[in-house]
């Protein structure tokens, strides 16, 4: 292709990317905790864009992410962003698959190996609240935050050693009093990302432009 490409990826999808990217494709991983404050996520991503000196094209392994990727200024680079709302669509392989799951089971909490490794799940959240506020208050916060979730779905993405993660996901379901289901993820979105096959499923932000949330609709 000729252009110098670099990936900027959320750590929740680090192993999926590492498992299939070419050795010579550079990638920078970002902390999951930035999602908790979309404005902070946008600020950090913008800083990466502004400070990048080598790559001409930056590919973000993110979705719109609560509009955290809305308003990114491309500067002298091209930005490529999957046309999805969050990483669940990336793990499932398409936004249509995610929409289908949401329509059938709107009260679903999705987990993957990366989410569990980043301690981004209700049980880990409960542990942190318990340390801060005590067990009774922590349980109340969790009950209120997750009262509408009826199913925990573990997305299997063909990574090795997932048995313990499946067991943990089942533990999270038991903790929430929710049903449990394992579903197969798809790698086609990740394949397109690492092979630079950016089709209509990607938002392309040319140099001198700004990403807009309307482009993700």
Q: What does it look like?
A:
The protein has 9 helices and 8 strands. It has 217 residues and is of the alpha/beta class. α8 links the parallel β6 and β7. α6 packs antiparallel against α7. The longest helix is centred in the N-terminal third of the chain and has 14 residues, at 38-51. The mean pLDDT is 94.
Topology (SSEs and partners):
Blueprint: E1 5-10, H1 14-18, E2 27-30, H2 38-51, E3 57-61, E4 78-82, H3 87-92, H4 95-104, E5 108-111, H5 113-117, H6 122-133, H7 135-145, E6 151-156, H8 163-176, E7 179-184, H9 188-194, E8 202-205
Parallel strand pairs: 1-2, 1-3, 3-4, 5-6, 6-7
Antiparallel strand pairs: 4-8
| Fraction in beta strands | 15-25%
Number of helix segments? 9
Biggest sheet: strands, sense, closure? Answer: 5 strands, mixed
Determine the structural class based on helices, strands and strand pairing.
Answer: alpha/beta
Strand-and-helix sequence, N→C?
A: EHEHEEHHEHHHEHEHE
Number of E strands = 8
Looking at the chains present, what oligomeric state does this protein adopt?
single chain
The best one-word shape is globular
Flag low-confidence runs: none
**What is the straight-line distance between the termini?**
29 Å
- Write down the Rg: 18 Å
Index terms:
single chain, 217 residues, alpha/beta, 5-stranded mixed β-sheet, 3-stranded parallel β-sheet, 8 strands, globular
In short:
The chain has 217 residues and is α/β, with parallel strands linked by helices. It has helices spanning 14-18, 38-51, 87-92, 95-104, 113-117, 122-133, 135-145, 163-176, 188-194, and strands at residues 5-10, 27-30, 57-61, 78-82, 108-111, 151-156, 179-184, 202-205.
